[in-house]
Amino acid sequence: MSPIIRPARIDEYDEVARVWMNSWVSTGLAEASAFLLANLRARVPTEIEKGWSLYVADDDGTLAAMLALHMADRYLDQLFVAPEYQGQNLGRQLLAFTRTHLPDEIWLRCVRENEKAWRWYEREGFVFEKEAVEPMNGFVMKYYRWKK
Description:
Elements: E1 4-7, H1 13-26, H2 34-49, E2 53-59, E3 62-70, E4 75-81, H3 90-101, E5 105-111, H4 115-123, E6 127-133, E7 140-147
Parallel strand pairs: 4-5
Antiparallel strand pairs: 1-2, 2-3, 3-4, 5-7, 6-7
């Protein structure tokens, strides 16, 4: 049975942050640390206040992935699959879910060094638009857009 995608509950925010960190670390672009986890834990409620619609992929009580959308901006902000669930089409399921909520257009950003992610988005029909430095973290971000 595949995980069920549903809205995240407030009591799951710590686990959402853990899934986020573990998936980010699996890219090789960061190392797991208490500091990184604390930052992500603090960021979840802050981003929800700023407009995130936060979803999780629930595998019978285990969080397999997190998905954060800004519906009004048609922005897919975060899509992170826990390492132990990667390679099982869960990302594709989350993207299909996103397309049901944002059926006409979606834009997103990917860290340039996260080649696995941006190549996947390209295979899924997203078109590269530009690169720009994200001043908050110094990463060069690749901007992508998908239109129906």
